Amino acid sequence: MSGNSPAVDAALKRFEGLYPDTIELSLGRIEHALDALGRPQDRLPPVIHVAGTNGKGSTCAFMRAMAEAAGLKVHVFTSPHLVRFNERIRLAGKLVEDAALIGWLDRTFEAIGGGQITHFEATTAAALLAFSEVPADVLILEVGLGGKYDATNVIGAPALSVITPVDYDHAQFLGTDLAGIAAEKAGIIKAGRPALTSIQQDVADAVITARAAEVGAPLYRLKPHFIEAMPEEVALSGRHQRANAALAAMAMQLFGQSVRIDQAAIFKGAREAVWPARMQRLKDGPVTALAGGLPVWLDGGHNPHAARAIALHLDGLGGKTALVSAMLASKDSAGFFVPFAPLGVEVFTCPNAPGHQAMPPAELAQAASRAGLRVTACTSFQDAMRAAAASRPDRLLICGSLYLAGEVLAMNGEAPE
């Protein structure tokens, strides 16, 4: 279900006729579109470019909160959206309004002039146009997929490049070789411009180090003691979020060489950041009513790395958790469920949000069963919620898909603002 206004949906739908027959990783199409728009990427505020497999959105949310706590005006570009497309483009602190968004989309469509372009490339071009025309102090720009050939990688001299933890995901585009995946992420590191990396697996760290050396980019690394310096309780739930907050804090300090962001602002942002569908406790509403009064949590994590972080958090909570899960057919479903096996959780699978290539609930249930979990396949999300609640857990966790997460937030009246 789309939360967009009909006018925004119509403006986005115009790009469907421009899709290439095959999607190949390249910057040529978006560079052509940006040239036609007058190269808005050359007229942006200082850019912090963020790539990685997991934690990109949370790290961006922490950075935004820290910068805003210091009084800065912050643009943010993230993807995908959960309920409304507008969530992808935050202008000086506020989500883009429909009328302005439609105007930038229409100008982009006209500039492309019937040439081939993907949806993400076209909307990234429109976003960069928007960011170039609204004043701000910093633009936090999140990579969509990979890095080297991602549509956002048209920034020649970012103020800072940030790489969050690298792991396996999007195998159909990035492959299953961790070094190769890391090379794609490290493609955002630019000549002579500072780069910051999270704590990485050795293979990924070696690739990132080599890329920085190749282009002469100063490379900084997050250290464990920096994580320990963060507040014990940061705004986003989960032990891994302290590391994301620490990475954001270090990014702000590096960026603060040109704009001062002090420790008070960093700590305030760490305690006040908001990022929906990441271990989010749902409020009372139609979704939580299905659980009969039990606490209901929501997390859009959908790969093994994310599952390990979620499982670690659940282990710390104790008690029994029931998972309500849906996934895309392209995801590593068996790998996702493995970290939950030691916790003895019970899984209830359901269809994913309409319009996506979802794994059927019965097939997803087989993957959970192979991971050693008790599982029940359900024919609807509502049935899965009721069955999960009937298993008498201490809490329910809806997980496995950002698309399902968006449906849940819309259904429960909690669309991001």
Quick structural overview:
The protein has 417 residues and is of the alpha/beta class.
Break the fold down into its secondary structure elements and pairings:
Blueprint: H1 6-13, H2 28-36, E1 47-51, H3 56-69, E2 74-77, E3 89-91, E4 94-95, H4 98-112, H5 119-133, E5 138-142, E6 160-163, H6 171-174, H7 178-186, E7 195-197, H8 202-215, E8 219-221, H9 224-228, H10 240-255, H11 263-272, E9 280-281, H12 286-289, E10 296-299, H13 304-317, E11 321-325, H14 333-337, E12 346-349, H15 361-370, E13 374-377, H16 381-390, E14 395-399, H17 402-411
Parallel strand pairs: 1-5, 1-6, 2-5, 6-7, 7-8, 10-14, 11-12, 11-14, 12-13
Antiparallel strand pairs: 2-3, 3-4, 9-10
Helix pairs in contact: 1-4, 2-5, 3-10, 3-11, 4-5, 7-8
Cofactor: Mg(2+)
Organism: Hyphomonas hirschiana VP5
Keywords: ATP-binding, Folate biosynthesis, Ligase, Magnesium, Metal-binding, Nucleotide-binding
Which properties best describe this structure?
417 residues, alpha/beta, UDP-N-acetylmuramoyl-L-alanine:D-glutamate ligase, Protein-Tyrosine Phosphatase, Chain A, 2 domains, eight-stranded mixed sheet, six-stranded mixed sheet, 17 helices, 14 strands, 41% helix, globular
